[in-house]
Amino acid sequence: MLRRVIGALAAFAFAAALCGAASQARPAVFAAAPVDQVLDLHGDPAGAQLVIFMAGNQYMVMPRLLAAFRRQYPQVRDIFYETLPPGVVVRQVRAGSLQMGNLRISAQPDVLLAGPRGMRTLHEIRKVSAWHPYASNSLAILVRSGNPLRITSLSDLGRANVRVVMPNPKWEGVAEQVEGAYAKAGGTQLVHTIMVSKLAAGTTILTRIHHRETPLDLMEGRADAGPVWLSEALYQHRIRPLDYVRIPASQNVQAQYEAARVNGAQHAAAARAFVTFMQSPQARAIFESFGFGPPR
């Protein structure tokens, strides 16, 4: 009898050890660039203690930002976040889910990070009630390594020999700011040249959906220059053989980024903590280290 009890206990302990090992095992990894990769979904939506949806041009900041947040709030370990174009984020929030190929994401956000226009839209559909600025940004021109066409200004993007990759106005909030900068640099004529005449001629191309396409188009020789946020230009210059041209303040525009807790957030305490952290000097310093400016 004692022998049977000992045997049963040993079998139970072995099964428990197996379950523990399985729960702690690393997940199976599958990625085959460029056909099977998901670059803008991060973490596990099923077990998340905080869900963040944000405009995608801040993707480079997030690892350092979340590491600092977790040090201050160690109880919030599991975070799922998306870094998608703002137009896509708003559509996802409206629809309640996101379809990416055969994958559907039904996680609901606790925190939304967006620009003023996005926040107004989210307020109109009663997703947010209040929002708080945490950073700003300006524009630059990303160019091929060595800047072979000697592009020095936005006006140069109107030249017939310069192929421009332009953010798609359907999805990317930055497109409106870029057109505003064109108008400052060369009036409505420059806007028409780049956005109508050159588009018809094929020397302006639009991103299909995402700002990540601009550096790829430059590196693969499909374009010579592309207006992007300064933070993106600095980051791409740091990690890839690309250069950038600064735009003077008189021809530039500024964007602001704002954080809001979602009404009825499932993880309300974690959401409040994150929105508070986003307004801290530490978070501001992290954003500024990537080329973002302080909130206006």
Question: How would you characterize this protein structure?
Answer:
The strands form three sheets. Strands 1, 2, 3, 6, 7, 10, 11 and 12 form an eight-stranded mixed β-sheet that branches. The protein has two domains: 41-135 and 255-289, 3-Layer(aba) Sandwich (D-Maltodextrin-Binding Protein, domain 2); 137-254, Periplasmic binding protein-like II (D-Maltodextrin-Binding Protein, domain 2). The termini are far apart. The chain is an alpha/beta fold and 296 residues long. Helix content is 40%, strand content 21%.
Keywords:
eight-stranded mixed beta sheet, 9 helices, 21% strand, D-Maltodextrin-Binding Protein, domain 2, globular, 296 residues, two-stranded antiparallel sheet
**Structural category:** alpha/beta
In CATH, the topology of the largest domain is named: D-Maltodextrin-Binding Protein, domain 2
Termini separation comes to: 77 Å
- Radius of gyration from the alpha-carbon trace, in angstroms: 23 Å
Number of strands: 12
CATH domain class of the largest domain = Alpha Beta
What general outline do the C-alpha atoms trace? globular
Second CATH tier, the architecture of the largest domain? 3-Layer(aba) Sandwich
Order of helices and strands: HEEHEHEEEHEEHEHEHEEHH
CATH superfamily assignment of the largest domain?
Periplasmic binding protein-like II
Number of domains: 2
Strand content: 15-25%
Query: Helicity level, as a percent range?
Result: 25-40%
Detail the poorly predicted runs.
1-23
- Average predicted confidence as pLDDT: 89
